[in-house]
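User: Structure please.
Assistant: Input sequence and predicted structure:
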Amino acid sequence: MAPPACNGSPDSPPRPLPQPTEHGTVSRDAHPARLLLLQQPPSTGEPAALAVWRAGQWLNDFPLEQLRFDAAIGLYAIRRMVDSPALEGAWNKAREKAREDDDNPMRRFWDQSAQAPIQAILGWTAPRAAPDSRRVNVNRVVGEALFCDRYGFREQSWDYLTGPMRDQGGYHSTHALWALDLLQARGCREGSALTMAGQDISTEILAVL
């Protein structure tokens, strides 16, 4: 069976997500969010920046043997928007640890050559209704969005992402928003439907902060 098409030519090369530079900073074209380079502790007037700076120090000191694959994913995402020498050091450690799981599809966040069979990405069925006990693992949706330029993003997955996946601004809603960002970055969804979904889920998340 041929992979389902996404918007744009299925034979066109993937649009790579922004990558951290070798110097630990991130290009200002990488993400529309405000970008920071935290060499020193920020002022107490910037609580979010201070929290990120402290988290970077803590992660950089975290024992390598206790790291998990998700640390590499989280640090990659953080460094798209904010960076520091400590976050760079933590990322290098987490990426080294992630090499132990070299067939994990999520490696494609930072390695565009990463491969995954179509069944590993599309081999799940989105529930039509999802009380908490029936929601699927968020990695199913995020992974399909991550590979959407290669395998497409199915309508059933879109309906799930914009509907029953959401949990009033909680864990599943934040991953739904992350998947929308991936779909946009890879050119697989665009237009008013994407914009409206992003606005709705963002409002939902902000309401509980």
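Strands lie at 36-37, 82-83.
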